[in-house]
Amino acid sequence: MNNWYTAISMDEPVLVDRDSSPTVVYVRKNIEQSTWVDHDGVEHVEYHYDECKIPKDIYTAIVATHQPQIDGLRSDLEYISMIIDGGTEDGGEETL
Q: How far, in Å, are 21, 31, 74, 75 from residue 69 at the CA level?
């Protein structure tokens, strides 16, 4: 079953939105930014993406079940970000 649908927003979406709804969590992927100019010559930005809604209780259960993997990915992303920013694990400098 495919629960994903296409969405469009004038505001940049977050990948996981736990705050806008009291009952569901919005999960988004394939976010693409596009611009267009209206008939008055004003440029607008909009975002096209795939989105699905997950009931908050189910989202909480998924996160709890997979917390070790999520923590590992978060740690990996933090490490990669540190390297990109010019640091290394031992506090030295590294250039990409």
A: 26, 24, 9, 10
Nearest to 52 by CA among 21, 11, 7: 7
57 close to 13: Cβ distance less than 8 angstroms: no
Q: Is the pTM of this model over 0.90?
A: no
Rounded to whole angstroms, how far apart are CA atoms 27 and 10? 17
Q: Is the pLDDT of residue 61 over 80?
A: yes
| Cβ-contact 7, 34 below 8 angstroms | no
Q: Identify which of 26, 30, 31, 29 has the alpha carbon closest to the alpha carbon of residue 46.
A: 31
